[in-house]
């Protein structure tokens, strides 16, 4: 096997989630612009608003996942520091 196919699962998941977050944010910005323009009917505005809420939730979920990973990595690093400084 080559090294590319042996990447840890977390690296693969990170690569997949990053573009989805960026795409969701871009789409959310477009929706906000459409809504702010005020050219949509009430029904279309509600439909776009609903889509925006779904995108916002996706972004929040991705951010919570990233925050959790940072917290875990920080704790691991702190534990390494404590372990090495206690020797």
Q: How does this structure look, described?
A:
The protein is an all-alpha fold and 87 residues long. Helix content is 84%, strand content 0%. The protein contains two helices and no strands. The protein has helices at 9-37, 42-85. The longest helix is centred in the last third of the chain and has 44 residues, at 42-85. Mean pLDDT is 79; it is low at 1-17.
Order of helices and strands: HH
Number of strands: 0
The N- and C-terminal alpha carbons lie at a distance of 39 Å
Percentage of residues in helical conformation: over 70%
Q: What radius of gyration results from the CA coordinates?
A: 20 Å
pLDDT < 50 runs, ≥5 residues: 1-17
| Overall mean confidence score, pLDDT | 79
Shape descriptor reads rod-shaped
The count of helical stretches stands at 2
Which sheet architecture does the biggest sheet show?
none
């Amino acid at each position: 096997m080559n090294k590319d196919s042996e990447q840890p699962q977390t690296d693969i998941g990170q690569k997949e989630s990053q573009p989805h977050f960026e795409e969701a944010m871009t789409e959310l910005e477009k929706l906000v612009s459409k809504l702010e323009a005020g050219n949509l009917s009430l029904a279309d505005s509600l439909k776009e608003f609903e889509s925006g809420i779904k995108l916002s939730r996706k972004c929040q979920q991705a951010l919570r996942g990233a925050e959790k990973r940072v917290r875990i990595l920080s704790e691991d690093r702190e534990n390494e520091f404590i372990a090495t400084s206690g020797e």
